[in-house]
Amino acid sequence: MSKKLQKVAYKPVGLLLGIGAGALAGFVFKEVWKLASGDDDAPNATDEDRGWGEVIAAAALQGAIFATVKALVDRGGAAGVRKITGTWPD
Predict the structure, then answer these.
(1) The whole model's pTM is what?
(2) Where are the alpha helices (DSSP H) in 38-89?
(3) In Å, what is the CA distance from 55 to each residue of 13, 42, 75?
(4) Keywords for this entry (predicted)?
(5) Is residue 41 part of a domain?
(6) Distance between CA 89 and CA 3 in Å, rounded?
(7) How many domains does the chain have?
(8) Is there a domain that residue 3 lies in?
């Protein structure tokens, strides 16, 4: 399979993996936030009743979880493609 064709073929796979990663990261964040704060809902940046520290902590935790899950899913997807095709996707 040519590199160009392989790149085009991987795009829908990458898109589906990205959607799945977002859903998984959202679930993981909600569960971790519940454990860490005892609250079912994480604060929004515009939530007047929440303090700066809580809002920033929630945002930092959410960002770290999303980045980690995305890296795991992207790396796993690329490794799977290499296992199937014999080459690493670009």
Answers:
(1) 0.81
(2) 52-85
(3) 34, 8, 30
(4) Membrane, Transmembrane, Transmembrane helix
(5) yes
(6) 8
(7) 1
(8) no
DSSP state of 49: T
Residue 90 domain-assigned (yes or no): no
CB 62 within 8 A of CB 42: yes
Cα–Cα distance measured from residue 89 to residue 72, given in angstroms and rounded to the nearest whole number:
15
38: left (phi over 0), alpha (psi -120 to 50) or beta: left
Q: Which residue has the tokens 């992207």?
A: 74
Quote the tokens at residue 61: 């935790």
Q: Which two tokens stand for residue 69?
A: 């899950």
Torsion angle of C-alpha atoms 5, 11, 14, 20, degrees rounded to 10? -140
